[in-house]
Amino acid sequence: MAARRRERTDLYAELLEVVRRSPGRARVTRLSYAVGMPVDRLKALLAQLGTLGLLSSKESSAGATFELTVRGREFLDAYWRMRALLGLLEEDSGPGFELPR
Fold it and tell me: Which residues form the domain of 26?
């Protein structure tokens, strides 16, 4: 069975969750390994999340580190609530009923 392609919102949430769990240590290489994404693609995604106000970055002599913003925390909270609600719908669908993908 082929792996399901990750949706953009899933990528955002996965990356933001790794940053949340790595306060002060979220560097590009660590994030790349954690989310399984090449560094060049990850840098583009980090820039996009920064533009959206979900991440902030701090430059130092050792390189940039990333931190979640208040808006990033709000996004993650809403994302996990929505995932939980969708999980309830999938559990409650019963035989003969399938949610559209």
Answer: 8-91
